[in-house]
Amino acid sequence: MDGKILIALISPILITIGGVISWFLKAKREEFLSIEEKARENKIKIYETLLEPFIYALTGTLDEDEKNNGIQKMLTLEYKKAAFNLITFGSDEVVNSYNTIMQSFFNKESYDDNEYGIILLAQLSELLLNIRKDLYSKNTKLKRSNLLEFMMTDIENYRDKIDNFKFRKIN
């Protein structure tokens, strides 16, 4: 058989095979991206639920009853489900940050009252930073205090303490 005829016969077959492989790879990639996007949306819902009581606590325009009602959401079944979902779907860093802040609540008496507020702000900002890294950019240049600036008028008084806070384990 002549070489030109062989090439003429094989070329459409190779083009077809290449197209099928490209289509298959593109379909798998789109499926992966779709699954990843659904997981990201699920994480956003979980994180929003877990952060809601903190938002209430840090909103200066709310009266004490409204703040307390918001904080009481931590005791609801919905909140507990979100915490379980965090353990299942959240990144290791977010789970550890959340556990650290919750342990601070459980063991408040082991802290000096003067430092407790700074500790909670440092832990909350660490949680926010880890959520940001999990959902958007692991290479963020933001520091903990940058995540609190929008709600603290006196951030400069606490910036160094928040950014340089060293976490300790509670026994």
Topology (SSEs and partners):
Layout: H1 3-57, H2 64-72, H3 77-89, H4 92-106, H5 113-135, H6 159-163
Number of strands: 0
What helical percentage do the residues reach? over 70%
Estimated share of beta-strand residues = under 5%
Overall structural class, as computed from helix and strand content, comes to mainly alpha
The total count of helices amounts to 6
The rough form would be described as elongated
Order of helices and strands: HHHHHH
- Which segments are poorly predicted (pLDDT under 50) over 5 or more consecutive residues? none
Radius of gyration: 25 Å
Short description:
With 171 residues, this protein is mostly helical.
Report on this model:
With 171 residues, the protein is mostly helical. 70% of the residues lie in helices and 0% in strands. The protein has six helices and no strands. It has helices at residues 3-57, 64-72, 77-89, 92-106, 113-135, 159-163. Helix 4 packs antiparallel against helix 5. The termini are far apart.
Which short descriptors sum up this protein?
about 170 residues; mainly alpha; 6 helices; about 0% strand; elongated
